[in-house]
Amino acid sequence: MNSIMRPHVFINVAASADGRISDESRRQIRISCEEDMQRVDRLRAESDAIVVGIGTVLSDDPRLTVKSQALREERVKNGRTPNPLRVVVDSRARTPLNARVLDGEAETLVAVSDLADEERVAALREKASVFVAGQEKVDLRALMEYLYSIGVRRVMVEGGARLNHSLIAEGLVDEIMVYYGGMIIGNGPCIADGPSFKPPVPLELVRVSRLGSGVLAVWKVLADKS
Ligand SMILES: NC(=O)C1=CN([C@@H]2O[C@H](COP(=O)(O)OP(=O)(O)OC[C@H]3O[C@@H](n4cnc5c(N)ncnc54)[C@H](O)[C@@H]3O)[C@@H](O)[C@H]2O)C=CC1
Ligand SMILES: Nc1nc(O)c(N)c(N[C@@H]2O[C@H](COP(=O)(O)O)[C@@H](O)[C@H]2O)n1
């Protein structure tokens, strides 16, 4: 793979003990304990951009903002915007115009592909920036290069399952943080949904710790990096 200039990219995800990130209805499930939610808020505050897939926007309607006022103020003190840039990977420009990511609380970039309907893109441009790359799916390497070019150096990916898989498949992930909550979900999307990696993507365990009622594992991705 040709190397590109791109930000440091990490995935943060909350999973059940059986590795599921929601149930078969794909509706959001609260897996994280309070301590983990605070850790996630700090990670957001330390990031320049938060990336999610359109599946996550349609299922969860997330805000993707920093919840702690103190952390937002600290960012501002350091010359940054109160919240990181929100990025939605959305090939066909399906982000609803009333989605919380378009609420103006933070800047938002919607990444679409050539498949996106022009009228939908024009409507999104009223509320967000739009980046176009890729014929069918969004070209994730081009997106990461673009984010780097606008000064983004640290990207937090908050799912979902299919976007995580694609980013790992493209060699665009450096680190994966998994909070395992004390529950079994059964059927549902897993941490990375897609065709089997052959061979499996190797990870190195960086650290593991008990957090609240669950376990936090931090992994470094050892596969070829771009
Ligand atoms: N427990 C947790 O930490 C989290 C759980 N979730 C859960 O994950 C589920 C959503 O995950 P998914 O349905 O897999 O949707 P997703 O959020 O991964 O979005 C995938 C969609 O993005 C679009 N896309 C455009 N370009 C793409 C590319 N190059 N690669 C991959 N996708 C591309 C496609 O339309 C694709 O179907 C929900 O159930 C949500 O609740 C989501 C985030 C975090
Ligand atoms: N860290 C974490 N723990 C859980 O238990 C979760 N269900 C999620 N989901 C992610 O958080 C987003 C919600 O963000 P807002 O609170 O609306 O800002 C959701 O879309 C998932 O990406 N995460």
TrEMBL record:
Domain of life here?
Archaea
Per UniProt, the keywords (alphabetical) are: NADP, Oxidoreductase, Riboflavin biosynthesis
**Pfam families the record matches:** RibD_C
What broad class of enzyme is this? oxidoreductase
One BP term from GO: riboflavin biosynthetic process
Limits of the Bacterial bifunctional deaminase-reductase C-terminal domain: 7-216
Alphabetical list of InterPro entries matching this protein = DHFR-like_dom_sf, Rib_reduct_arc, RibD_C, RibDG_C, Riboflavin_Biosynth_HTPR
Its family remark reads:
Belongs to the HTP reductase family.
Q: What is this protein called?
A: 2,5-diamino-6-(ribosylamino)-4(3H)-pyrimidinone 5'-phosphate reductase
Species of origin reads Archaeoglobus veneficus (strain DSM 11195 / SNP6)
